[in-house]
Amino acid sequence: MKVFQRKWLLMFIFVFALTGLLSACQTNRGNEGDGGTFTFSSFSDIVSINPLFMQDTASSDAAHWLLAKLYDLNREGLVVAEPWSIAAEEPIISDDGLTYTVKLKDYAKWSDGTPITADDIIFTIETAMNPDTGSPMIAQFDKIESMKKIDEHTVEIKLSTTYAPFIYSLVFEPAPAHILKDIPVKELKAHSYGSDPEITVTSGPWLWKEWTQGQQLVFERNPDYWGEVKPKIATVIYKIYADQNTEVQALLKGDVDLVSAIPVTSNDAVKGNPDITLILEPGPSYEFISFNFDESNFPNGFNPFATQKSRQAIAYAIDRQGMIDNVLKGTGVPMNTPFLPGSWADPGNRATVYEYNPEKAKQLLAEDGWVLNEATGILEKDGHPFTFELQYNTGNSRREQVAQVIQNNLADVGIDVKPRGIDFAAWVEQNLTPGKYQAVLLGWSLSNPDPDSESIFSSKYFPPDGQNMGWYKNEELDQLWVEGYSTTDINERKEVYAKIGEIISQDLPYVFMYRYGNAIGIGPRVHYEEEDAPEPSLQTGYFFHSIKWWVE
User: Fold this and answer.
1) Scanning 50, 81, 178, 461, which has its CA 20 to 30 A from the CA of 472?
2) Which segments of 256-369 does DSSP mark as H helices, in order?
3) Alpha helix (H) ranges present in 318-458?
4) What's the pLDDT at 499?
């Protein structure tokens, strides 16, 4: 399963009243070793590991091994300076919450030996803030008023306004200023930094040695790595398979050591192997159908999603609970807003709930002017049939099944859906990033626990300067997202997000489907201490503290 990562996202500190399953869990096995090869799998290739443009989980998985972050998240989701973080200590925050002082380790360096300095931090942030760059990071930094280089390893960042989630904005991978600063910002995205191992200078514990597109990436331990904690694993292989089922077979045969997203239909087969550790807990991810509001994506400019009633009808016509029961095997939780169930921002019963009700859907469609063409069995309005293409990524067995259910459910009310699977890397570049689709079945993987989702739903962040890829505009919500992050009072924020929940569950830029978790399967060759075990609640938590893992 691959999802977009909500890069400038925020955080959800939700209570883990989650059903957790940890089978055959052995977190401290074998004697600590050094060397060896660790292989993990995916069914998607990367796009680029250039931090300024990275927004898909496949690329993020690769970057985990190659690029150090300024700060990291600990197991509780708090921002910390780990031994492998570039920051030397936690940021110093002024009493008014507007000034952050960041001190860097004075011995951190890039893989070419160049020191990592305040110039790299300032370059990355300034470049991301520039609208001409087209960076998805813009929303996490555009509340910055100024930055000052105090010395070679200290940066002072001043905000123009209160921005409650800003501390999470400091969890990012800096880009190398000495490599990229002379390239015009409009040419940065097309530059080969991030996609050519030969010129991609990195900052993490491993070096990028090989990329055979569609097959594998190879990372080797950096003998000159600067961190206080040195990596034990000598070689890391990112192996690309055709689909999730093939990944599981590779895990069962011992060809790979970790699969981060085992389909629920394979859980029993994996549990049946006592040598494999299976971790199944709801993660920070939810799935949705995104409607596109840009008329240029539809024949003759006729957008069937233009009215609220039509979108609500689709929500009523889709059997989400049936998908959870039959496709997700009961492992998901229905959602009605972008706030995870159980989180402090969850609006609860203030959100509109769309129970499966095809008759209600038909009623809304009739009220909206749709009339059934008896000859085709498809609804029409003003001579336009209610038909659209639903895109999803190939190789994802869950989405393939869910797309089929959506097609069947909507056919029952007279809507013609054409599911279309697309290779993930190509999909990101050609459809998602530029916002060129009619509807997509996709998921967000939340990178931190704050509920702010301005960059996804505000009209300030249309492509390419943000992740509002469906071109959704609601001026009342635009203002509420600002109010939500403009105070640090948790009760005031909670009230704002409850209001957002009321409005967005009525207006429906998305059909919010369900929160779900991806089972993690770990082979018997992998060892770690208990405090370094994978943490499913974090975005790339399946690699949590992997610098300290070892393999046989």
Assistant:
1) 50
2) 267-271, 308-317, 320-326, 358-367
3) 320-326, 358-367, 397-411, 424-427, 454-457
4) 98
228: its two tokens: 């206080």
Type of residue at 226: W
The terminus-to-terminus CA distance of the chain in angstroms comes to: 28
Mean local confidence (pLDDT), 433-442:
96
User: Which residues are CB-contacts of 552 (< 8 A; sequence separation ≥ 6)?
Assistant: 30, 33, 36, 524, 525, 527
Q: What is the 8-class DSSP label of residue 87? A: B
**Burial class of 56 by CB neighbour count within 10 A (0 to 12, 13 to 18, 19+):** buried
Q: Which of 308, 111, 138, 332 is nearest to 206 (CA)?
A: 111
| Residue 277 token pair | 């550790």
Tokens 């077979």 correspond to what residue?
249
Exposed (0-12), middle (13-18) or buried (19+): which is 274, by Cβ within 10 Å? Answer: exposed
Q: H/E element holding 122?
A: helix 118-129
Nearest to 545 by CA among 335, 261, 232: 232
Structure-block tokens of residue 534: 């994978």
Strand ranges for 59-203 from DSSP E? 72-73, 79-80, 92-93, 99-103, 144-151, 154-159
Q: CA-CA distances (angstroms) from residue 382 to 203, 369, 386?
A: 58, 9, 10
Handedness of CA 162, 460, 315, 393 (dihedral sign): negative
In this prediction, residue 28 has a pLDDT band, given cuts at 50, 70 and 90, of very low
Which of 125-139, 183-197, 261-275, 301-315 bottoms out in mean pLDDT, i.e. has the lowest? Answer: 261-275
457-492 burial, b at 16+ Cβ within 10 Å, e below that, comes to bbebbbbbbbbbbbbbebeebbebbbebbeeeeeee
Beta strands in 423-509 (DSSP E): 439-446
Q: What is the dihedral of CA 88, 89, 94, 98, to 10 degrees?
A: 60
CA distance 349 to 352: 7
Across the range 324-334, mean pLDDT stands at 89
144-151: strand order across its sheet: 92-93, 99-103, 154-159, 144-151
Residue 516: band (very low, low, confident or very high) from pLDDT cuts 50, 70, 90? confident
Write down the pTM of the prediction.
0.84
Amino acid type, 58: A
Question: To which H or E segment does residue 334 belong?
Answer: strand 333-334
Whose CA is closest to 543, among 34, 65, 2?
Answer: 65
- Residue for token pair 């390419």: 464
Q: What is the pLDDT of residues 348-404, one digit of tens each?
A: 999 999 999 999 999 999 999 999 999 999 999 999 999 999 999 998 888 999 999
Residue type, 386: F
The three state secondary structure string of 403-425 is HHHHHHHHHCCCCEEEEEEECHH
105: its two tokens: 């380790």
Tokens of 421: 């699977």
